[in-house]
Amino acid sequence: MLKKNGIYTVTIEDIGHKGEGVGKVKGIPLFIQGGLPGDELKVEVTKLKKNYGFAKLLDIQKPSDQRVIPRCPIAEVCGGCQIMSLDYSEQLNIKTRRVRETLQRLGKIDAPVHAAMGMKEPYHYRNKAQFPVGMEGNTPVMGFFKTGTHEIVNTEHCYIQHPVNDVLTKIVKEYIGKYSVTVYDEKSRQGLLRHMVSRVSNKTGEVMVIFVINGKELPYKEELIRELKKEVKNLKTVVQNINTKNTNVIFGEKTATLYGEGYIVDQLMDLSFYISPRSFFQVNPTQTQVLYQKALDYADLKREETVFDLYCGIGSISLFLAQQAKKVYGIEIVPEAIEDAKKNGELNNLSNTEFLLGAAEDVVPKLYEKGITADVVVVDPPRKGCEETVLETMVKMDPKKIVYVSCNPSTLARDLAYLEERGYQTKEVQPVDLFPHTSHVECVALMYKRGKIVP
């Protein structure tokens, strides 16, 4: 029987969805932060549940053959890269296996799962950074939260972010000190500056900087903008976002442009995109093109289909589909994203698109009631997956294909199982590594309506 505070030796067999090592002691799975598959560890049990527990790593008694020295010196403290200490090829193997096992265990999905598609150079790939701001004594700090906490690990250089963030964080820290700008404290809910968010165009190099504040106005903003313009090459716009709520959500509802036009332009393959502060745009442009190309391959459009793109964001997948479809309806709940999507349709001269504002679970049934249905449905939902209403209406519309883009294998398994029970069959699933050195993995799944198409 395991005991809390007991000391045990465990061999790590797998990685959990948060990047923890998982190993069994006396048949009970233990989740251990910092453990990697193949490690033999000395651990102390910190918490026990009915069928599993958590333990603290005390010593690596025998390291895994796949353990490497991470490029980042703070990787094992910072919560940004949970598995940078694992050889990259093994990261891909583990992600492939997790997708396969999750689909089989939770959804009873036995379709082929291909090997995860990785990067040649899996560093500095992110085009968006979200830095919380804090204080250590009288010194401002910016970085990422220590795993499982809201304690900021000060970061001078991040190996997965764009290098411009080194310059931005230095400027912001100096600004805080020079002008005595207060920093938000989660416990007291006092202080002004909460986050600095950056977005960088992979194609043009344009830089957007967003300051999230707990108040009405950023002080000494002219001086801050002057310094940013002086030090940041290709600075395109500076934006202020107001968030006065007691929440872990970064952005509030009110956004104002302080400098520039309030957006940047990026390009994927042969299409250009306006990106505004709160719009969703995949953070890894190199792998996004791999992901989207696989979605297009699965859709296999012949310029005669009506396509629904649910959770369409700024229309990135929609516009690629529109190049090969008769008509594309994009549906998204974020107003700024829909506005960007409409602009992006015009920017790329694609008039066979219609972008609709609203929750997919509300808009899709209304379209169906009007007699508007899809031959192919593409979905790219948030981590919680699709609402059942959306899935139910998709089944009623009877599309010949469903292409499901997912950032969460568990909800993917649940939703595929729902659709399989109602006449669809999963043909194959392709994992794509959009987030190297983290435990996250994206997937694209192809489903056929049984009897409509013979695979």
From TrEMBL:
TRAM domain location is 1-59
- InterPro entries cross-referenced by the UniProt entry: MeTrfase_TrmA_AS, MeTrfase_TrmA_CS, NA-bd_OB-fold, SAM-dependent_MTases_sf, TRAM_dom, U5_MeTrfase_fam
Gene Ontology biological process: rRNA base methylation
* UniProt xrefs under SUPFAM superfamilies: Nucleic acid-binding proteins, S-adenosyl-L-methionine-dependent methyltransferases
Give the E.C. number(s). Answer: 2.1.1.190
Q: Which residues bind S-adenosyl-L-methionine?
A: Q282, Y311, E332, D380
Q: Which UniProt keywords apply?
A: Methyltransferase, S-adenosyl-L-methionine, Transferase
List the catalytic residues: C407, C407 (nucleophile)
Extent of the signal sequence:
none
Q: Which CDD domains match?
A: AdoMet_MTases
For molecular function, the Gene Ontology terms on record are: rRNA (uridine-C5-)-methyltransferase activity
Q: Which domain of life is it from?
A: Bacteria
Q: Indicate the family of this protein.
A: Belongs to the class I-like SAM-binding methyltransferase superfamily. RNA M5U methyltransferase family.
> Under which name does UniProt file this protein?
23S rRNA (Uracil(1939)-C(5))-methyltransferase RlmD
Instruction: Name the source organism.
Output: Isachenkonia alkalipeptolytica
The lineage, from the top, is:
Bacteria, Bacillati, Bacillota, Clostridia, Eubacteriales
Tell me the name of the encoding gene: rlmD
